[in-house]
Amino acid sequence: MINQAVVIGRSHRIMQQNCQDFSITRELQPGLAFGVVLDGCGSKYRGRERSIPSNNEVGSKLLGQFADAYLSQSLSNLIVNSRFGRPALLELINGLYSGTLDLLAEVVKSIPFADEAARVEFVATHLLSTVLGFVITPDAGAFFGLGDGFLCQNSQITRLESQNQPDYLAYRLVDGDLSMGSTSGFQIEIIENSSECNWLAVATDGWNESLVGMLETPRQKFSLQRWVNCQARQRGQFEDDGAAAVWWRG
Questions:
Q1: What is the pTM of this model?
Q2: Are the CB atoms for 156 and 101 separated by under 8 Å?
Q3: d(CA 190, CA 134)
Q4: Which of 144, 158, 197, 209 counts the highest number of beta carbons within 10 A?
Q5: Cα separation, 147 vs 186, whole angstroms
Q6: pLDDT, tens digit, 9 for 90 and up, residues 63-75
């Protein structure tokens, strides 16, 4: 079983800002599934002696829709060819990285910006988003992505923290200070003994370790979203937007 939830953070509600997180999940057959969460950068961009608000929910939703289509099609191909092992999985994840980067590059290329400064401003205010996900097959599994958030396997929680300086995928589209020299692909963490894995989760950094651990309880359809909404009503929970994708075996 697989499910997902997204909640707007308290600070965004107060400031009347859009939710900048996004999540997708899909299970093509038992034991063959993926989940991805995305978190658009909320910081203002300072350029040309002015401060520009962030609309990076555009990037999170754009990348999320692409990841959904790409992973759904790629996993369908694995079913047809009965290729579920680690080599096929790594090929799939590397292909997703190349595809998402090509997508962002084509979007930027298609807009006739007046100059390079306008191009950089668009990237910084619309396309900066973290990406974290998992893929599980009958024979292998892996976490992948770039940016802050949480990975969880059978209650073993890993927090990814970059001191508020995530390596956004879209940094690779520009040169100079914004890019910070980013060139690497998705970071990949192989899920050892994936056949013994009972549940997996990825979550954006609006969550905390205690809440991520509570995702162990299977919740179908809208029950997960209702539970997250209830947690968000408690003071101190979800000050920032939060997105999670969870898979439970059986």
A1: 0.93
A2: no
A3: 10
A4: 144
A5: 10
A6: 999 999 999 999 9
The count of structural domains within the chain is 1
Q: Please check the confidence at residue 41 and state whether its pLDDT lies above 70.
A: yes
- For 211, half-sphere exposure in the C-beta direction (CA atoms, 13 angstrom radius) is 25
In Å, the largest CA–CA distance within the chain is: 56
What does the alpha-carbon distance between residue 64 and residue 190 come to, in Å, rounded to a whole number? 22
Helix crossing, 57-81 with 86-109: angle to 10°? 140
- In one letter, which amino acid is 121? E
Give backbone dihedrals phi and psi of 199, rounded to 5 degrees, phi first: -160, 150
The pLDDT, as a whole number, for residue 249 is 93
* Per-residue confidence (pLDDT) for residue 229, from 0 to 100: 95
In this prediction, residue 112 has a pLDDT band, given cuts at 50, 70 and 90, of: very high
Q: State yes or no: pLDDT of 176 exceeds 60.
A: no
What residue ranges in the chain does DSSP mark as E strands? 2-7, 21-29, 32-40, 45-47, 50-52, 129-136, 141-146, 149-153, 156-160, 187-190, 199-203, 242-248
* CATH code for the domain in which residue 114 is found: 3.60.40.10
Structural domain of 80 = 2-248
Mean pLDDT calculated for residue range 81-87: 85
Which residue is it, tokens 């999670």?
Answer: 244
Q: How are strands ordered across the β-sheet holding 141-146? A: 21-29, 32-40, 129-136, 141-146, 187-190
For tokens 């950089």, the residue is: 120
- One-character DSSP codes across 18-72: PP-EEEEEEEEETTEEEEEEEEE--SPEEETTEEE---THHHHHHHHHHHHHHHH
